[in-house]
Amino acid sequence: MNHYMYYLTILLAVFMIFAGIMHFVKPRFYNRFIPDFIPKLFANYLAGIIEVLLGVGLLIPQYQQMAGKGMFYLMLFFLPIHVLDVFKEKPAIGSKKLAIIRIPVQFILIYWTWHLSK
Questions:
Q1: Which residues does 25 contact at the CB level (< 8 Å), separation at least 6?
Q2: pLDDT tens per residue, the chain (118 residues)?
Q3: Crossing angle for the helix pair 64-86 and 3-25, nearest 10 degrees?
């Protein structure tokens, strides 16, 4: 892995660990993304645990590919949630503009994590 990808991977790992921890610190923010038919507290904490574990996995060379694959599937799973957020009157992310920007960001994360899984 070249230095550029190494630093991007560290950045993604830190971002995922931070996001995972925030599921426990500010669950109300994430609850807005979770569809009503899913138990919010369970889904929130589960997502937080998964994000932290995958982020840590990216930092351990022998688990990096597996963590990348897990993150790829997680980002795919989250894509419809972010697409639906665009069409809400009050998007969970805060504004229509942010909800729209979030879609290409999600595709970048999907590509990035796919690359890490190879």
A1: none
A2: 788 888 989 999 999 999 999 999 999 999 988 988 999 999 999 999 999 999 999 999 999 999 999 999 999 999 999 999 999 999 999 999 999 999 999 999 999 999 888 8
A3: 60
Please check whether residue 50 is in contact with residue 74, taking contact to mean a CB–CB distance below 8 angstroms: yes
**Which residue range forms the structural domain that includes residue 69?**
3-116
Query: CA-CA distance, 35 to 38, in Å (whole number)?
Result: 6
Token representation of residue 109: 């994360």
Please state at what angle helix 64-86 crosses helix 40-59, rounded to 10 degrees: 140
**3-state secondary structure labels for all residues of 23-73:** HHHCHHHHHCCCCCCCCHHHHHHHHHHHHHHHHHHHHCHHHHHHHHHHHHH
For the chain, the domain total comes to 1
Q: What pTM was computed for the model?
A: 0.90
